[in-house]
Amino acid sequence: MRPLGGKPRGAAEALIIPAGALAVSLILFGIFVAFAGANPLAVYRTIYRGAFGSWFSWQNTLQRAAPLMLTALCTALPAQVGLIVIGGEGALVIGAVATVAMAAVLPGVPPPAVVAAMLLAGMGAGGLWIALAGGLRHYRGVNETISSLLLNYIAIALMNHLVTGPMRDPAIVHRPSSWHVGEPNMIGLIPGMDVHWGLVFGVVACAVTWVLMEHTVFGFGARVVGGNTRAARIAGLSVGRLALITCFIAGAAAGLAGMTEIAAVHGRASSSLVAGYGYTGILVAFLARQNPLAVIPVAILLGGIEASGGLMQRWHDLPDATVLVVRGIIFLVILASEPLYGRFRIFQQRTA
Amino acid sequence: MEALGWWGVPLAVLGGAIRASTPFLFVSLGECLTQKSGRINLGLEGTLVMGAMSGYGIAYLTGWPWLGVVVAGSSGMALGALHGVVCSRPRVNDIAVGIALMLFGLGLAFYLGKPFIQPKAPRLPAIDLGWWSSSPQVRAALEVNVLFIVGAVLAPALLWALNHARWGLAVRAVGDSADAARAMGYPVNRVRLLSTVAGGFLAGIGGSFLSLYYPGSWNEALSSGQGLMAVALVIFARWDPVLCFFAALLFGGAGALGPALQSVGITWGYYLFNAAPYVLTLLIMIATSSTRRTLIGAPGELSVTK
Q1: ipTM value
Q2: Are B73 and B51 in contact (CB under 8 A)?
Q3: For residue B168, what pLDDT is reported?
């Protein structure tokens, strides 16, 4: 029995139980908005239209799904080695700060080289940030959930310090911000779409880490560690190395989200980076049952719900925090549905 | 400020410790009780903010701040019950439920709290313990809220109860070994549920202090993670309610360092000093954890120390 969901007993079960939980959450949410005086059916229609109703809303949804895929990996990958890491928000922020710093030390360098350097800086910084939590766990026995949570706050404080002091651009008045990475260094949009390259990064990262975890010797070792650390040690696996590398890759994914937030959206670091992508990413990872490939559709679904927040506000006069309530209800129902796995006969594999 | 000069810094830190420690104190006492029963509730951040919102809303609507405190505690109980019930089901991870509850509590508080951002609710009264001094700084530092005193009394009371009262022994038995407790006839899930509900009650009251006394208003940036830090604070305090009290003072003082230094003209590193409680917690956890043994005093069933 793996501690965090892990391999489902059957693909159908892994699809139907979360879908059922999602349906139950939407019903609960409908009751909730009914209390606020809104018509639940109209709100459902608004969510659908705001999320997937048109090409415009699809683009909006995908734009929000991109960082969610990457921050979800920050929780889903350590879960393979049995660690609960919730430091995606901090790794994103640190990756973004490193991206800005890297662009600043390379003035006059051709843009493709700067973009490559920014990618390495963002991923490296985010990776080290989460590897720190993994290392503290392995070498000092510090609980990784709490340390990664503390590291979120430390990362945000560090960024606030840098953008109000050493890295501040005095020309920006309304909100303390760092220097701009430079217009030529911005990576821009995917041709033919109003969606930035982060979506490609996210999909590729999910696919690559899925192959890594499911079809390589490294991934097999990591999953053995997650299943039973003591057995893995007896089998001669280097538990610490597997855990640390997995944490590094996880942090690198969130750092990449920070890099794209800088190089494709904001151009500079500021408090607008702290948008909760890290926390929604945790939900995406749990909803996807820690499977990197399943992260892609789940991130799109959650991105869609967030994208519909504006319409809910405008058409139904619901507060912008409505999206947060939906998110919380889904998360709770998904976790409460955990005991259902293995309870339904039709999902069990038939043995001759 | 001229009269005190640099002395203003330790004084402001002391005053800050008394003022800012109360939410830490209540949340950590609640979390201490919950963790003693073998469960960890990471959702107390959501509970704290929900308590702050509901307490403020009720105080504004009725004009009675103490009724707000009671309602804040009750909403905390409801969230605690949700955590306890979901975690009672088999194979449910209490850490994950805590994260979910944190997000849900924050979302619900922001959703319901929108109308209360503008209006002004009545504040909780304070007791002036600095009446003997002519210095306004000393008087400001020694203005103590009743809730702080309640918390200071509650801490040793909780320690006594955990060691001597029947329900305290039940909580500890369940927290140290579910199997042994079951053999002794304790209803494990019910004891844990009640401990989480009581923990939520205290955390909700801690939240009402934030909105009804200090800083004394309701907005979405009211909590700076006190509910989360309290979880680590309990581990730092070795699951001892009296040590929780001193740790809460330490955390409150650490949080007051940045603003205190700013008041004497040191503005460099304001945000870094704000991170002092988080860094402190992390350093303490690094210093006291070990891969070879579990922490001294840790409940045997607690997932974060196993």
Answers
A1: 0.87
A2: yes
A3: 94
Minimal C-alpha gap between B265 and chain A (Å) = 16
- Of residues A149, A161, A286, nearest to B96 (C-beta): A286
Its CATH architecture, for the domain A11-341, is Orthogonal Bundle (1.10)
**In the numeric block, which tokens belong to residue B306?**
């196993």
Binary contact (B96, A139; C-beta < 8 A): no
Residue A328 to residue B269, Cβ atoms within 8 A: no
- In order of their start, the domains of chain B are 5-288 (1.10.3470)
Of A160, A282, A319, the CB nearest to B271: A160
Structure tokens at A302: 């959650």
pLDDT over 70 percentage in chain A: 95
Q: How far apart are CA B196 and CA B92, in angstroms?
A: 15
What is the DSSP pairing of strand B126-128 with strand B143-145?
A: antiparallel
Q: What is the pTM (predicted TM-score) of this model?
A: 0.88
The stretch A104-122 carries a mean pLDDT of 94
The whole-angstrom separation of Cα B11 and Cα B140 is: 10
Question: Which residues does residue A178 pair with via DSSP β-bridges, in sequence order?
Answer: A168
Domain ranges of chain A: 11-341
| Residue contact B92–A339, C-beta within 8 A | yes
Instruction: Supply B213's token pair.
Output: 């006394």
Q: Under a CB-based contact definition with an 8 Å cutoff, are residues A222 and A98 in contact?
A: no
- Tell me which of A1, A89, A139, A149 to substitute to probe the interface with B (most B C-beta atoms closer than 10 Å): A149
Neighbouring-strand partners of residue B126 = B145
Q: How far is B217 from chain A (nearest CA, A)?
A: 19
| Nearest Cα residue in chain A from B306 | A143
What's at B8, amino acid-wise? G
Residue B204's pLDDT band (cuts 50, 70, 90)? very high
Where do runs of H (alpha helix) occur along chain A?
Answer: 11-35, 40-52, 55-80, 88-104, 111-135, 144-164, 198-215, 217-227, 229-234, 239-260, 277-287, 292-307, 309-316, 322-336
